[in-house]
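#data-curation
PF: Archiving a pair of folding outputs for the training set. Convention for this channel: one message per protein, sequence first, structure tokens after, nothing in between. First:
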Amino acid sequence: QVQLVESGGGLVQVGGSLRLSCAASGRTFSSYAMGWFRQAPGKEREFVAANSWNGIATYYADSVKGRFTISRDNAKSTMNLQMNILKHEDTAVYYCAIDRAIYYSGNYLRDAAEYDYWGQGTQVTVSS
């Protein structure tokens, strides 16, 4: 049974930083690409960032490029999202997800349909 557990969300002021983590189990973490998505109230889930199974390739939404950094530690089966210079519009529930295919990378990782397991989400609220 694959399980993904996010942590690190919370309340932060505009311009501040947060670091989200995702702990994975039940699948050989080092063989699968991972992604972060978010969903704000009244909006559809959107892509935030992803990295390839080996962490070499990374992908970001234009809205977070230069502010967010995705990373992974395959030895610990964890993935992180460092979020800096946070804005009001970053307020959302953040989800981590694991790719359904082994050893893949590419822009298709921006599509939520490419992931088959999701975490429960962690709330990020950016206030002024």
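PF: Second:
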Amino acid sequence: QVQLVESGGRLVQAGGSLRLSCAASGRTFSGAAMGWFRQAPGKERVVVAAISGSGRRAYYQDSVKGRFTISRDNAKNTVYLQMNSLKPEDTAVYYCAAKIRRDYSDNYYLDEYDYWGQGTQVTVSS
């Protein structure tokens, strides 16, 4: 059974930092594109960051550029989202997602992921 399990979300003050982790089990995601999404109350789920299967290319939503960093550790089958200078508007449930295909390409994806985690709550207080 394939599972993506997010962790690291919690309540933090504005200006603080968090590192989210997404641990995969049931199969390896080495070489598969992965992404982080978030959904704020009353809003649609949107992509925050994405990383290619090769790990060489990444995408960031404009609102998080320069503050968030996506990375992956293939040996640990884990993808991370380092979030710095957090703002109240970053408050949301954060989800990780993965593609089935392991192509080790430089392509990242903004949608159409095959696997999803259950999410972890990030709350940023002002």
